[in-house]
Amino acid sequence: MSWDISIQDLPADVATVADIPNDFKPGVLGLRSDVIARIQGVCTDADFTDPSWGVLEGNGFSIEFNMGSEEICDGFMLHVRGGSNIAMILIAGLLQELKLRGIDCQTGDFFQESTAEQSFGEWQAFRDRVIQRKDSDGSSPSEA
Q1: Which pLDDT band, with edges at 50, 70 and 90, does 90 fall under?
Q2: Where are the domains of the chain?
Q3: Which of 110, 120, 134, 114 is nearest to 15 (CA)?
Q4: What is the rounded distance in angstroms from the CA atom of residue 97 to the CA atom of residue 74?
Q5: Which residues partner with 6 through β-bridges?
Q6: Beta-sheet pairing, 76-82 with 53-58
Q7: CATH, domain range 3-143
Q8: DSSP string of 105-122?
Q9: DSSP code of 52?
Q10: CA distance 52 to 73
């Protein structure tokens, strides 16, 4: 279970995801190896031993970079886990450096550092309820 951000070349001039034209097609980000190099320029400790699935272990959080298996990268997903808000600051810096936008899958709208803390907090509360419910059912919390 993770807090997820979908990153693509989305229009810079729209205020909400609902404002994206129905016929909009995100642009290609480039070669996956080039996108990874740009990510590692911001997230220097990110491990891309497997170029399709990078991992960054931080203090109280982890981010997995689901880059896909194609050599041409048209987007990627971030899967954030843990309890540290440092991940949100890092994601905001990454998006700014890459000049890309992300969609917060928790809210269904654009990732914004100003609202990410609330979204992440809501995801954490959901995660904790699921884990508590699984614990009371006798299931393993690691299944969540």
Answers
A1: very high
A2: 3-143
A3: 110
A4: 17
A5: 77, 103
A6: unpaired
A7: 3.30.310
A8: TTTTEE--HHHHHHHHHH
A9: T
A10: 10
